[in-house]
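Changelog note: in this version the structure field was regenerated for every chain. One regenerated record is shown below for reference.
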Amino acid sequence: MESGRIIFHIDANSAFLSWEAAYRLSIGENIDLRTIPSVVGGDPKTRHGIVLAKSLPAKAYRIKTGESLFAAAQKCPGLTIIPPDFNLYLKCSNAMVDMLKRFSPDIQRFSVDECFLDYAGHDKSHKAAFDAAFEIKESIKKELGFTVNIGISTNKLLAKMASDFKKPDLVHTLFPEEVKSKMWPLPVEDLFMVGRATKPKLNKMGIFTIGDLANFDLDILKFKLKKQGLLIWEYANGIENSKVNPDSSLGIKGIGNSTTISFDVEDRNTAHLILFSLVETVGMRLRSSGSLCSLISVSIKNNKFLSCSKQRKLYFCTDSTSTIGEIACQLFDELWNGDPVRHLGVSVTSLSSNEKNQLSFFYHGDIEKDEKLNKTVDTIREKYGKNSLIRSSFLYSGLKPVNGGSGSDSYPVMSSFL
């Protein structure tokens, strides 16, 4: 038996595309998006936007995450393009975390598709840890319908590096005694925190592999790269001591939504309606993540593509669609100079958990009534589609009552998987 920490890093394989595939199979579709050339991203009709996730068959066409949909479609004329559905992805992420809680109470979300888990088993031998990780991987695949990679080590850095080894649907170890054989031969850009800007600087110093970096003169690195030099040298040597922090929420700093409008908006009322259509999605995503916000921002771009923005810090925390929408409209009124508007955006930041909400004298609404209303609206929309309940102000307006954040107009609860 070995003492010390055992950390797992769980990473959903091609998360957005896998989650789309699992959902579509759960409602009776016959084609698994993971088995055909397919991507998630942007608008399938106009092919505007970028690739957010790709299938393995799409990868065979040299389609890359981050490239334009137009370029991807040129590489593969029969490419299937799916618009992103962030509400669905958040539900899938939450379902994965809920399952992981069966194995350990200490889980830290690193991003929407990645988690660290402090293995709580009494037997912390390498074999017992591997068996537990394999059980987690198989449970997620069987019960939720998608695959994950799991990396195992004694710290978060090495566990994350391990999960990035060969994919998909695998468990890898990277214990300190394996660093020289498994990590040092890798290209230096594969090391966490070595980005595009740092790679050429390291290459100029003759550093091309992680092993080169680990064995390089630390004083020179600190002179050339300052604090980052020390950080990446420690990472190359497998040194990292941060704790798995269950209090870390989604790894998201904020939630936003924006739209480019097909016509010039020249009146305040229309702008307000569009802002509320954006806030409908922001509010749903905020509540789904179990978060509250205390900073609201609005951005405007006119028909000459000149941008401006304004934000407001609140004296209370909220997840109320109405409250966020009212403040967004106030910010617009303070910001707008009368120029025709072609793009509007709303974002909320300074997030906190809704489990620790403290009431404020500055909030004058009926909080309990508002919470019940939002919960009811969310439940109905999740079951019957985002347009099943709309604000009466949108009737006969010709505007979308709920804008963005959901790729399909209607989908039932993913009960068979999630």
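Spot check on this record: Residues 268-288 form the longest helix (21 residues). The first strand starts at residue 7 and ends at 12.
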